[in-house]
């Protein structure tokens, strides 16, 4: 038997998924105060069932969930709905860089860690919804955005970020100042249309640049 089709997406419906009731209520109260409609789910299975009944515009998703992990929920939602819904991980448990990168690689639009600033959370929610309803002209392009948009030096900086180096370590590797590194990173985020280093690193890995960039980095550092 085929599963019933979800209702058309409700523009202001946000599904909040977290096993902790207090965490769910904190987020839903914040969203409802500014006019969003919300639904809650406490497990991965509940989240998938809820989305199958009424397609949300956005899902705020914890990683550690019963039955189906947040990563699994994200992948299944992407497989079913494609880019018709926005997905943001909101986690207080999985907060390391590799957790955020993994979340972005399985298809999330964003990854926010707790504790969060309420204004920042709302800004990211609005941004994700706006991108879904009206994609920006300067959004991702066909082909390889990292290769097409970044200079060689910016690709070097991004490659070192992807290897887990800190800003001072990158400066030491490339024999430039930390301030210059910061400027490169800001330009990288702007050119790639992302607002976090984790998202930029996810794009780097998504387009299979790690081996190529490692070779180029080694060559440039040896020549310095």
Topology:
Elements: E1 13-17, H1 21-33, E2 37-41, H2 44-53, E3 58-61, H3 70-81, E4 86-91, H4 97-105, E5 110-113, H5 118-133, H6 145-149, H7 152-162, H8 167-174, H9 178-192, H10 197-206, H11 210-223
Parallel strand pairs: 1-2, 1-3, 3-4, 4-5
Helix pairs in contact: 2-3, 4-10, 7-9, 7-10, 7-11, 8-9
Structure description:
The protein has helices at 21-33, 44-53, 70-81, 97-105, 118-133, 145-149, 152-162, 167-174, 178-192, 197-206, 210-223; strands at residues 13-17, 37-41, 58-61, 86-91, 110-113. With 224 residues, it is an alpha/beta fold. It folds into two domains: 13-133, Response regulator (Rossmann fold); 145-223, Winged helix-like DNA-binding domain superfamily/Winged helix DNA-binding domain (Arc Repressor Mutant, subunit A). A five-stranded parallel sheet has the order 2-1-3-4-5, sandwiched between helices. Helix 7 (152-162) packs across helix 10 (197-206). The protein starts with 12 loop residues before the first strand and ends with a helix.
Which features does this protein show?
11 helices, disordered N terminus, Arc Repressor Mutant, subunit A, 224 residues, elongated, Rossmann fold
């Amino acid at each position: 038997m085929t599963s019933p089709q979800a209702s058309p997406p409700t523009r202001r419906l946000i599904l909040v998924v977290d096993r902790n009731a207090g965490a769910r209520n904190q987020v839903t109260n914040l969203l409802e105060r500014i006019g969003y409609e919300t639904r809650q789910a406490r497990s991965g299975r509940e989240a998938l069932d809820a989305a199958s009944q009424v397609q949300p515009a956005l899902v705020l998703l914890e990683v550690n969930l019963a039955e189906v992990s947040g990563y699994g929920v994200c992948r299944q939602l992407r497989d079913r709905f494609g880019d018709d819904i926005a997905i943001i991980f909101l986690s207080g448990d999985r907060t390391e860089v590799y957790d955020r990168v993994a979340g972005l690689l399985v298809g999330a639009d964003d990854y926010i860690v707790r504790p969060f600033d309420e204004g920042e959370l709302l800004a990211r929610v609005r941004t994700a919804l706006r991108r879904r309803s009206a994609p920006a002209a300067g959004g991702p392009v066909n082909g390889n955005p990292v290769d097409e948009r970044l200079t060689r030096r910016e690709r070097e900086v991004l490659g070192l970020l992807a290897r887990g180096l800190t800003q001072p370590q990158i400066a030491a590797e490339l024999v430039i100042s930390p301030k210059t590194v910061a400027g490169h990173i800001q330009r990288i985020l702007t050119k790639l249309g992302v607002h976090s280093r984790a998202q930029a690193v996810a794009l780097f890995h998504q387009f299979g640049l790690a081996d190529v960039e490692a070779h180029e980095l080694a060559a440039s550092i040896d020549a310095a």
